[in-house]
Amino acid sequence: xxxxxxxxxxxxxxxxxxxxxxxxxxxxxxxxxxxxxxxxxxxxxxxxxxxxxxxxxxxxxxxxxxxxxxxxxxxxxxxxxxxxxxxxxxxxxxxxxxxxxxxxxxxxxxxxxxxxxxxxxxxxxxxxxxxxxxxxxxxxxxxxxxxxxxxxxxxxxxxxxxxxxxxxxxxxxxxxxxxxxxxxxxxxxxxxxxxxxxxxxxxxxxxxxxxxxxxxxxxxxxxxxxxxxxxxxxxxxxxxxxxxxxxxxxxxxxxxxxxxxxxxxxxxxxxxxxxxxxxxxxxxxxxxxxxxxxxxxxxxxxxxxxxxxxxxxxxxxxxxxxxxxxxxxxxxxxxxxxxxxxxxxxxxxxxxxxxxxxxxxxxxxxxxxxxxxxxxxxxxxxxxxxxxxxxxxxxxxxxxxxxxxxxxxxxxxxxxxxxxxxxxxxxxxxxxxxxxxxxxxxxxxxxxxxxxxxxxxx
Amino acid sequence: xxxxxxxxxxxxxxxxxxxxxxxxxxxxxxxxxxxxxxxxxxxxxxxxxxxxxxxxxxxxxxxxxxxxxxxxxxxxxxxxxxxxxxxxxxxxxxxxxxxxxxxxxxxxxxxxxxxxxxxxxxxxxxxxxxxxxxxxxxxxxxxxxxxxxxxxxxxxxxxxxxxxxxxxxxxxxxxxxxxxxxxxxxxxxxxxxxxxxxxxxxxxxxxxxxxxxxxxxxxxxxxxxxxxxxxxxxx
Lengths: 458, 235
Hints:
The complex is a heterodimer. Chain A has ten helices and 13 strands. Chain A is of the alpha+beta class. Chain B is mainly α. Chain B is built from nine helices and three strands; from the N terminus they run αααααααααβββ. Chain B has helices at 8-25, 45-56, 70-82, 93-99, 117-134, 139-153, 162-166, 173-176, 186-196; strands at residues 207-209, 224-228, 231-234. In chain B, strands 1-3-2 form a three-stranded antiparallel sheet, covered by helices on one side. In chain B, a hairpin with a 2-residue loop joins β2 and β3. In chain B, α5 crosses α9 and α6 crosses α9. At the A-B interface, α1, α2, α3, β1 and β7 of A face α1, α6, α9 and β2 of B.
């Protein structure tokens, strides 16, 4: 009997071991398959990166050599495309951010710089002396980067380096990806790239000087004053029924006090909801930068027009009297309105304020004025060189113009351009076309996205 | 003594082995959890999973034991209250979804969202990122995390699209460990919408970290803008 027992157990043991072994092998195979697929993905990104950067070097060299406007334009757009491709591929590699942020920045700016020249230069001229010099600096950097990447590629080809190896070593400690050869290589590149000078030009990714808020006075306010500002802002009719406290401070582009305002719960006469309202108030000038009231919005009762009236009334009583509606969208029983400042009848698009209206009772449950406070100031608007009629003639003749007005739009960089804005229709879509009021160039085209309670320009 | 008795222990081991193999073959534990609503007094693997999830999100501090007791009930109610769910302790499909017990079921319905497809897709992905990275944070902290993603797309040192930023290797822990695939809560969608519409409680930050768990020394060298909840926002 005992012997039988032992044979049972032995059989079961063998079966378990074999089953376990099979399972383990299956798992191992599956894992290996995943690892190889992943490695291949990384290889693809890496080798495309190497190609992109090599092309970048060649195209930059050509742009430096060329004396033909046509050829220069083609080179510039090739540089732009390859630089952005390279940056996208670089960002797909499993490397820690601090090992490549400068390199990513170089690629972004190289593309952005080329694109900005291509956009602003007239097709009749080649690079200016300053542009040529900057391009020459960029060429030096591109050549260096290309050389380093080729070396790395050679090492990868020798089979010494594997991308998934980085992944494995760092999988437990995110971002502690040190001691690895690939990372070390990229860190060396990064250090060299840091030695090159920063780049300023007229484009969105240019190294600008730190912008200062133009819409704020220099007058510093205390925490106590900020608390008063917040209560007044939430409810000018009865600020005493609220209590406010400071919950922090912010050190962003606009230095702020972070505050929380709530109906005074100790006061038995205060009716209504006790929602917490959060506001950031600027330390200079004491303006509300944004407000958030994250309450649940109940059943929808207001119409679009009623909500709009509430938003406009709010702006008027909070020190924003001259605002015009620019876009709106409805989301979860809340209306988002965007308004722009108006000066001398010209819509100033950089000075935007956004207002959220709860569609259950019309309460304002959010305000965003950071953009406005950063850019708002009195502008000396030049008289347009073109009349409205002259500007209209610059439009594609196939378009049907519905509306037109004078506007100030932000450029790619940090300038502002006076334009005629034409609301036009083509097929079933509507667009906003911007014609430069001083030289008649078509500055920009935005497509309107329209639906019930929705109008956004993209 | 009977001459041929199979001891029950052997049965148990055999059945268990088979079960494990089946679980692996069918793609994990999900198939194994029932579709019932979990109520106080229930026991089982689904309760265990629920306790583990609550623990991950900082709501349950005990050892998960698969028993829905008073302590678990308290955590469930707190979790439900924080996530715009009825705080009644009944873990129905909606609560399970918020806990991430099921995989996401897909994008928002048409009524919730209309208009530009890319805008909708971006808001969707942003909501997922916010939910995965910061669902335990106060609402402002959630909007701020969304704003950081958007600020990165406008910064030369980062990819130019929301997708590129979110899926950049090593950029976000919750993408790395797969939490990005959880279905976001209503709150996360609202935070995403606010961030997409321009609200930025982070004050222009491109980094954030939890000082208690951050592992990279480098991140501490970034100039701090402010603190919201347990995250420090930096530029």
